[in-house]
Amino acid sequence: MKLINRIYLLLLFGLVCYSAGHAQETSYFLHTIERGQSLYSISTMYNVTTSDIIRLNPGCEDRIYAGQSLKIPKAQTGSRQDAFHTIQPGETLYRLSTVYKVSAEAICEANPGLSAENFRAGQVVRIPLSQAIETASERPARTANNDGFVQSRCKDMHRVKRKETIFSVSREYGITEKELIAANPELKDGMKKGQLLCIPYPSARTLEPNRPKDATETSAPDNNTLFDKTRKSYKNIPVVRTALLLPFQEDKRMLEYYEGMLMAIDSLKRTGTSIDLHVYDCSKGSSTLNNILNKAEMKNMDLIIGPMYQEQIRPLADFAQRNGIRLVVPFSSKDAEVFKNPFVYQINTPQSYLYSEVYEHFFRQFGSNINAIFINSGTPDKEKAEFVKGLKEEMSRRQIPMASISELSTQEAIKSALRNDRTNIFIPTSGSNLMLNKVLPQLTLLVRESPASHIKLFGYPEWQTYTRDHLDSFFELDTYFYSSFYTNTLFPAAVQFSKSYYKWYGKELASKYPSYAMLGFDTGYFFMKNLSRYGSQLEDQLSNIKLTPIQTGFKFERVNNWGGFINKKVFFIHFTRNFELEKLDYE
Q1: Which pLDDT belongs to residue 50?
Q2: Dihedral over Cα of 475, 478, 479, 483: its sign
Q3: Which of 108, 234, 267, 419 is the most buried (most CB within 10 A)?
Q4: Rounded distance, CA 45 to CA 51, Å?
Q5: What is the spatial distance between Cα 355 and Cα 150, in angstroms, rounded to a whole number?
Q6: Residue 168 and residue 316: Cα distance in Å, rounded?
Q7: How many CA atoms lie within 13 A of 330 on its CB side?
């Protein structure tokens, strides 16, 4: 009997373990990593922690790569929070609508980056479960009174949500637009958010509430049909209403930014673009921001630019999303709102995305027939360590030979690292001016003593600050460095801007990098011009916009189907041995 009990307990334990394991197998969805994504950005876009991802994907804390699939934990069963779904082969938008009992329109609204063209297997979409349609079997049954059951003329009541239309509500409940208007005559004057509607019983037949109407009523509509039905009509923006929220009294650079933006507005007005600019001094803290957001005119803006302070980004982004206003975050590169708010544009590229772009441009420029020589700094540069690590991983994957020397290495040690059959690229592991002062004399001597060797120097954005100190060496070493912003006082556009700035304000342009006046000009010109030109279809035209900036370039890409946009523009600056200066744009 004891043996039987033991066997029973073992079987029961095994069943429990199997059930737990089986449950775990279905407790996640798959995310395919895209170039530039990090564990932090992935965890942020799905509202989980990096620890959650590491637990399901052991080893990913050490290395992840584009194309890799990660398991992402799902929300708890029964939760009405948004869910995420990885599209499977053969699935359609109609199928998702049916499975999750959420209208196709609600899914499209939750995923503004989704289209019939990119609806494919492996894509992740956000499912707004809070907008799930309640079926008849899920509603409480009606009870009869003492006089017998009397059916109400209203099958249900519906409170209008933002951006809903008569068409979308009637389709959601399986009735015609005519039936909905007949039950709610006030709809003849238009539909308003918060309005309570009577949903009548269908006059002839009952459709599934979550089934979109189709002309044939027998076959499911395809993706093109559903996306066409949910596509919003074009809205023109004749006057671009813009709010600028910056701490002008706390940081004089913000005044320079504003000055540059005023110059952009003047240039646009000369070409017929109408701008209505509202400027607010947004000092640190929440009270000042709240006072600004409570102003009646703020809800009517087409564009908000700001803030400067990190802690103000989230409440401002929430406000922008509630009111359907595009928000341009001009300075921070570390905020997470862009990964979950479709109205956010982030000018400064997050580090992982920036480095990924640099790596791609690096190999496009130099190819694979190179010999990389890393110059190690005596003072470790934590900021550059991640960049160097990623670059070495890319080189290992491409089987590119690498060597390491010290910033204090002798000429003999440096020469021993050279390869005569390859282009030798020296890459310091620190971007400091102190390191340049140490290595440039040795490298210039090397070039003079070994003229037959193909030698180049590659470095970092801050080198543009030291250009005047090392200009001759940069030319002699055939130097490159990357940056998301760059200008030179010899460039025609920069010369003209500097002259105009002096004419406007009676002072010289501050000789700092980046120039906040130029950043204000480039940002204001880009967004105001293109909102005026493309209106509500700006996002559809981003890849077609070609503007030559004075300093800061723009290449906006949406981070996921439900999030905002980050700027992926990166330039390479090249000091040629012919004493020419090139700004290389790889787009």
Answers
A1: 92
A2: positive
A3: 108
A4: 14
A5: 68
A6: 29
A7: 29
Q: Residue 397 and residue 363: Cα distance in Å, rounded?
A: 12
β-bridge partners, 575: 479, 581
How does strand 196-200 pair with strand 239-246? unpaired
| Regions in the chain scoring below 50 on pLDDT | 1, 3, 7-25, 77, 135-151, 204-218
Residue 3: helix, strand or coil by DSSP?
A: helix
Contact 337, 313 (CB under 8 A): yes
Amino acid of residue 351: Q
Nearest CA to 213 among 181, 169, 158, 153? 169
Q: For residue 529, which of 289, 218, 242, 281 has the smallest C-alpha distance?
A: 242
Element (H, E) at 21: helix 2-25
- Main-chain dihedrals φ then ψ at residue 200, nearest 5 degrees: -80, 165
E strand map for 314-419: 326-329, 344-346, 370-376, 402-406
* pLDDT, position 16: 42
Contact 33, 46 (CB under 8 A): no
- 3-state SS record for 301-315: CCEEECCCCHHHHHH
- Predicted pLDDT of residue 144: 43
> Other C-beta atoms within 10 Å of 585: how many?
14
Pinpoint the alpha helices (H) of 111-251: 166-172, 177-183, 223-230
CA triple 249-253-258, angle to 5 deg = 80
pLDDT for residue 10: 47
- Quick check: bond before 451 cis, omega within 30? no
How far is C-alpha 292 from the geometric centre of its chain's CA atoms? 26
**Distance between CA atoms of 84 and 86, rounded to whole angstroms?**
7
User: How many other CB atoms sit within 10 Å of the CB of residue 256?
Assistant: 21
Assign 518 to helix, strand or coil. Answer: helix
| Element holding 39 (H helix, E strand) | helix 39-45
Sheet architecture: strand order including 274-281: 274-281, 239-246, 303-305, 326-329, 344-346, 565-567, 556-558
Pairing of strands 402-406, 370-376: parallel
Residue of 61, 119, 132 lying closest to 93 (CA atoms)? 119
What letter does residue 348 receive in the DSSP assignment?
A: S
Q: How far apart are CA 319 and CA 306, in angstroms?
A: 13
pLDDT value of residue 195: 82
Cα distance between residue 572 and residue 557, in whole Å:
20
| Bond into 209 cis (ω within 30) | no
- Rounded to an integer, what is the distance from CA 157 to the centroid of its chain? 38
Question: What was the pLDDT predicted at 318?
Answer: 97
Task: Indicate the burial class of 79 (C-beta count within 10 angstroms; 0-12, 13-18, 19 or more).
Answer: exposed
Spatial distance between the Cα atoms of 317 and 345, rounded to a whole number of angstroms:
10
Sign, CA torsion 572/575/579/581 = positive
What's the confidence (pLDDT) of residue 205? 39
Spatial CB neighbours of 511, under 8 Å, sequence gap ≥ 6: none
Radius of gyration of the chain (CA): 30
Cis amide prior to 514 (ω within 30 degrees): yes
